[in-house]
Amino acid sequence: MEIFPGAFHLPAYLDSDCQRELVAVCRSLWQGTPGPFVPTVRGGAKMRIQMLCLGRHWNALTYGYE
Asked: pTM for the whole thing?
């Protein structure tokens, strides 16, 4: 079911074992190197979240991808 243009809800797409494996992979990436970071906005303030980029990284200071 399309819930927004380009975003789909796929119930039961991954079985329980696949979901557990996906969570394990995400946790290992989070705990690995370089791990999560706290983004800084253009004005220099730190955000109150931690992020982990997989692929192209959006730089909030330059408003571009790295």
From this structure: 0.61
